[in-house]
Write a structure and sequence with these properties.
This protein is an alpha/beta fold. Helices cover 45% and strands 21% of the residues.
Length: 290
């Protein structure tokens, strides 16, 4: 990994997201591009400039915001060894974030989302939701008042055995090696297959992962989904004290099951786990799954 894109709106949570990006960038020796989209909503955005400086001209507002953005970048450079540059553009937030990520060849986007809408908002219409749904890159979303700790000890990766999950495991392994952390790959049993069949499928997928990813700290678990996926994942996250949950974005798939009202919101409100979303692709032809 060489480049991390961090969109910010100057809210408290976007600063927390930046701190999480700095943690990863410092360990993996990569650069951060700090992005602000002018006059557009970022994450759960409010326009701080307009609230604090009513009546100022468009040109002055741009200059003021650009200086503030560079101040944030400078703080990163002064306090760490991470290379951090600032970039300010005009446009629609989600569109600009995705375009900049592609143009700058970023490998991951790290951004925040704010409660009370929190993680649910990722799926229902925020800027973060549009980025997650349309990004070809992994997107790490940091819930409100949540951050990665000083060390990533454990990441949980939920899988349905798609080939693209191999790429997700490889990506997580690069982070895991930098932090000497473990990755727990879990599959939710839905009761359609017997236990022997489920175990055979898990063993088959584990062998594929181990051939692709040379990391001794990857483990595999079958998890009873009980009433729903989010309850089962909540148990896995809590039991393993996971620092991060990773899933693949597919239509009518695990990502939609995760974001049902009530249980999922309670899960994230209490466990405060950052969510890493991968885009699922058919490895044979590069097209999006389903």
């Amino acid at each position: 990994m060489k480049t991390i894109l961090v969109p910010v709106d100057f809210s408290e949570n976007s600063h927390i997201a930046l701190n999480s990006a700095v943690l990863i960038a410092n360990k993996m020796k990569c650069q951060i591009i700090l992005l602000h989209v002018h006059n557009a909503s970022l994450v759960e955005s409010y326009n701080e400039i307009e609230n604090t400086m009513p009546g100022i001209s468009q040109e002055t507002e741009w200059d003021f915001t650009e200086k503030k953005l560079e101040k944030w970048a400078k703080e990163v450079r002064n306090k760490t060894k991470v290379k951090c540059t600032s970039l300010m553009v005009e446009g629609i937030s989600a569109n600009e974030i995705l375009e900049i990520a592609e143009n700058k060849k970023a490998e991951i986007i790290i951004m925040g989302t704010k409660r009370p809408s929190g993680i649910k908002k990722i799926i229902t219409g925020s800027v973060a939701s549009q980025v997650v749904k349309n990004s070809a890159l992994p997107v790490l979303v940091i819930p409100d008042k949540t951050t990665l700790r000083n060390k990533i000890h454990t990441t949980v990766l939920a899988t349905d055995y798609h080939d693209s999950d191999l790429a997700a495991a490889k990506f997580l392994s690069s982070i895991g090696k930098a932090f000497s952390s473990k990755i727990i790959v879990v599959h939710m049993k839905d009761g359609e297959c017997n236990d022997c069949c489920e175990q055979d499928m898990l063993d088959w997928f584990a062998s594929k992962v181990k051939k692709t990813v040379k990391n001794p700290n990857i483990y595999f678990q079958l998890v009873e989904s009980k009433k729903n996926v989010s309850e089962a994942l909540e148990d896995v996250v809590k039991k393993n004290k996971a620092d991060m949950l990773a899933v693949s974005m597919r239509k009518k798939d695990i990502i939609e099951k995760l974001f049902t009202p009530g249980i999922t919101m309670e899960m994230f409100n209490h466990t405060h786990v950052p969510l890493l979303v991968f885009r699922a692709y058919d490895t044979a032809n590069g097209s999006e799954l389903f």
